[in-house]
Design goal:
It contains 5 helices and 5 strands. The chain is an alpha/beta fold. The protein has one domain: Alpha-Beta Barrel (TIM Barrel). It has a 5-stranded parallel sheet, with helices on one face. β4 (107-110), α4 and β5 form a beta-alpha-beta unit. α1 packs parallel to α2, α3 (83-102) packs across α4 and α4 (120-135) packs antiparallel against α5 (161-172). The radius of gyration is 17 Å and the shape is elongated. The N and C termini lie far apart (45 Å).
Length: 176
Amino acid sequence: MTQSHPRLGAHMSIAGGVDKSIERGHSIGCEAIQIFTKNANQWKARPLAEDEIARFKAAQAELDIHPVVAHDSYLINVGTPDDALWKKSLDALTHEVERCLALSIPGLVMHPGAHMGSGEEAGLRRIAAALDEVGRGSPATRPASGWRPLPARAVHWGAASSSCARSWIKSMIPSG
């Protein structure tokens, strides 16, 4: 399909199930949407049921809503120097990726967090380590070719996570 204009959309609620977000977007004229795949203010998430995933994909195809992009939890901070929070954040980020992959969502908008006083370079190293860790996950959690998190500074992940992490760090460290 040839696209002659940018697709317009909005962030849609997933209340009642992720599949409802597609219907909500369509009802207000969206061509694309952004969603949270779970409550963005909680660490835990209810599992996505297979029938909910199937309804989501069917509604997306039927109503021609694309792309659908997800936004990660506001709690995640993979830039933190605190090891316990970093691990909890890494687990949450991995879970976000799993949910995106289950729903065939091609991108995840993420706010990787803050260095909490440890310094920008230290924070970037922690963020890069987390992205590498997610990329090295099991086949069920390893992002497929073309899938990418979309960090707040709009750097796209399209290759191997380690390459992305190195490029991302270089692009974010001021020169001079």
